[in-house]
Structure formats: C-alpha cells, structure tokens
Amino acid sequence: MRPLSEMLADLSVHAKSVEDKAAAAQTETHDQINAKIQQTKDDARQRSLAAEARRDQAGDDISSRWGKLQADWRKQVAGIREDIQDRREEHDAKVAQRRADRAEENAVNAIDFAESAIDAAGEAVLEAIDARVEAAEAAAMAPVKTGA
C-alpha cells in the first residue's frame, strides 16, 4: 500500500486540478465544456475501478462499506444527471435558467459531500497512524523471548 501522506498529496493535486478546470471552463464553448465533462467522467470511472480493486484486495467489512457508500453516491449522481438531461431538452429561457440553478445546486452539494469525504479521510488517516504508533509501542514493550 502507498503511504497515506502520498495519497493525501494526490488528493490535494486532484482537487486543484478540478478547481483549475472549473476556472478554465468559464471562458470555453459548450462543446469544449462537454468534452471536459466526458473526460472527467472517464477519469472518475477509472479512479473508481482502481478503488474497487484496492477494496477487493483488502476484502474487509470497512472496505465493503466504503464501496457501498461510493456505489450509492454514484447512483444518486446518475439520477440527478438524468433529471438534468431530461430538462436539457426543453429550450425555454426560464427552464434553462432553472436547469442552470439546479446544476449549480448539484455542484454545491457535490462539493459539500467531497468536503465531508475529505474530513472522513483525514480522520481515517490519523486513526491509521495512531494504530501504527500503538502497535509499535506495544511491540517495544513486549518482553523479549530468548531461544533456549
């Protein structure tokens, strides 16, 4: 397994990449933005598959619960995207404005969820580090057995 500090650094880089893409999208065309959306979906799918593979290797209850949470999240996002897509087919200006408002609300909620996930990851990392420290201390305190 990679060191947790490396994984957190990668998460930070990924978050910055998302921020940069969002800033750049402000000046791009509809087609350019849609291409980025598709690339983002493809990248997320690849990260999800990699995470599933890591969970499969670990095979414990905690990993499966994280996997279920991730699957539930993907299902909710897919439902929201379907709703948004249904409304894209309507061309009325008011409808388009409401759709934009809903899409922004969806983005805000996704960011809120990501912040919560990062908080949970930070807590889990600290707990993992603490468990390693406790294990090292216990090993150091264990009586030394000599072979006779």
Structure description:
With 148 residues, this protein is mainly α. The protein has helices at residues 4-25, 30-58, 61-88, 93-141.
Sequence-ordered SSE layout with sheet pairings:
Layout: H1 4-25, H2 30-58, H3 61-88, H4 93-141
Helix pairs in contact: 2-3, 3-4
Task: Give a concise summary.
With 148 residues, the protein is an all-alpha fold. The protein has helices at residues 4-25, 30-58, 61-88, 93-141.
Tally of alpha and pi helices:
4
SS class: mainly alpha
Unreliable spans? none
Strand content: under 5%
Radius of gyration: 21 Å
Q: Give the strand tally.
A: 0
Give the H and E element order: HHHH
* Proportion of residues in helical segments: over 70%
What is the straight-line distance between the termini? 37 Å
Mean pLDDT rating: 82
- Major sheet, described briefly? none
Shape: elongated
